[in-house]
User: Which sequence fits this backbone?
């Protein structure tokens, strides 16, 4: 997994909750779904692994959203 899973999130005016799955994956530093899944030891051809990958992406999105909200709240003060 890339060292900074939220890289690039502050550069966007679009909230992570509104980003596509692909944009979240790219924002986390991966080249795509297969790259992200391989970094977690998941197989793209296993349905259970794809389901797990989507849950991981949701977690990444939630972390990116929390960071985005914190950064934008601080800039409004």
Assistant:
């Amino acid at each position: 997994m890339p060292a900074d899973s939220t890289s690039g999130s502050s550069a966007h005016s679009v909230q992570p909750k509104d980003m596509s799955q692909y944009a979240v994956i790219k924002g986390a530093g991966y080249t795509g779904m297969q790259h992200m899944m391989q970094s977690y030891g998941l197989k793209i051809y296993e349905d259970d692994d794809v389901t797990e990958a989507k849950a991981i992406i949701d977690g990444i999105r939630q972390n990116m959203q929390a960071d985005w909200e914190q950064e934008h709240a601080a800039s409004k003060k």
User: Anything to note?
Assistant: The chain has three helices and no strands. Helices lie at 21-27, 33-39, 47-76.
